[in-house]
Automatic annotation (TrEMBL):
It comes from Novosphingobium olei. It is an enzyme of class 3 (hydrolase). This is Protein-glutamate methylesterase/protein-glutamine glutaminase. Belongs to the CheB family. Keywords: Chemotaxis, Cytoplasm, Hydrolase, Methyltransferase, Phosphoprotein, Transferase. GO terms for molecular function: methyltransferase activity; phosphorelay response regulator activity; protein-glutamate methylesterase activity; protein-glutamine glutaminase activity. The modification 4-aspartylphosphate is found at D55. Signal peptide: none annotated.
């Protein structure tokens, strides 16, 4: 079946380049191209595409507002096409938190944009076309709701002192497609003094710092990009830098640290969720919580199983709230998930001793 795509970009040159990159793909058809939000709104309404590529830095319009309207009125998989500037990265990070499924980085080559990207955009579009949007729980969408959930987590944790599970020493999280939005909901419900938390989110290294800043601005814990040998602290979340290094749990005994290790892709990814989860299983075993969120493929499934086998508490996001159910589905099929829960409930399961 042909994947129908609409390109929204104010630059005629960029529209031509994107169309050229997709023209040779037999399973992808660009059905329209729009130069601004007004044109984009019209063609999306008329043609009902499978995927939209959107430049949110277009002058004369608020791309984030446009994206938010798309997601509210006609949920459609959106790939953000972003420039190399810091402003572009910040806008892209906010767009991912609003529900864009992926980000495609424009080349920062000063000699110009090549007409061929080795099929990267086409592959993103194929993956995005598999996304199915479910009805979103309204409760998780507002700051007030997130605050209420944090209070609930803190209350349940306090009431449950002395019960079966102790406060986790480390929380490890893996996510991919749709993960920034899911992380905003999950981490938004964490308290300021949450256990040290390590995150592998599959994302271009160019956007990882902006994603960390976006989440840090809306979530109670301090959220940073991981650097080598950072001592783990309560109330801190460490996100993999997204470059050619895996993020692992390092250190020993009383002093745990972040560890970044160069290597080859594992489970198709660098950094890999499986590598993070495996290191957590080996170092802290039953003192950890592992959480696998929305994403394409199976990265993290075997690592979550390793954590479960070492006695860790393991959680997978449920299908109804996933943008893509691939990674959680793979973990569930292995018997790796001790709990399967909607995104709005995962903080309670991770932090409550009574969960």
């Amino acid at each position: 079946m042909t994947i129908r795509v609409i390109i929204v970009d104010d630059s005629p040159t960029m529209r031509a380049i994107l169309m050229s990159r997709l023209a040779k793909e037999p399973d992808i058809e660009v059905v329209a191209a729009a130069a601004n939000a007004a044109e984009g709104r019209q063609v999306i309404r008329e043609l009902d595409p499978d995927v939209v590529t959107l430049d949110v830095e277009m002058p004369g319009m608020n791309g984030l507002d446009f994206l938010e309207k798309i997601m509210q009125l006609r949920p459609t998989p959106v790939i953000i096409v972003s420039g190399a500037t810091q402003k572009g990265a910040e806008t892209t990070a906010r767009a991912l938190a609003l529900g864009a499924v992926d980000c495609y980085a424009k080349s920062d080559n000063s000699t110009g944009l090549p007409m061929d990207d080795n099929g990267k955009l086409a592959q993103m579009i194929r993956e995005a076309s598999k996304v199915t949007f479910h009805a979103r729980p309204a409760a998780s969408a507002t700051p007030a709701a997130a605050a209420a959930q944090r209070q609930s987590v803190q209350r349940i944790t306090t009431e449950a002192r002395g019960s079966l599970r102790e406060r986790p020493r480390v929380i490890a999280i893996g996510s991919s497609t749709g993960g920034v939005e899911a992380l905003q909901t999950l981490l938004g419900a964490f308290p300021e003094n949450c256990p040290p938390t390590l995150v592998v989110q599959h994302i271009n290294a160019r956007f990882a710092p902006a994603v960390a800043r976006t989440l840090d601005g809306s979530c109670p814990p301090k959220i940073v990009v991981a650097e080598p040998d950072m001592p783990l602290k309560d109330g801190h979340v460490y996100i993999a830098p997204g470059d050619d290094r895996h993020l692992l749990l390092g250190g020993a005994n009383a002093l745990l640290t972040t560890k970044l290790r160069k290597g080859e892709p594992v489970s198709g990814h660098l950094p890999s969720v499986d590598v993070l989860f495996g290191s957590v299983a080996e170092l802290v075993g039953p003192q950890a919580v592992g959480i696998l969120l929305t994403g394409m493929g199976s990265d993290g499934a075997r690592g979550l199983l390793a954590m479960s086998q070492k006695g860790a508490h393991t959680i997978a996001q449920d299908e109804a709230t996933c943008t893509v159910f691939g990674m959680p589905r793979a973990a569930i099929s292995l018997g790796a998930a001790g709990v399967v829960a909607p995104i709005g409930h995962i903080a309670r399961h991770a932090l409550s001793k009574a969960a």
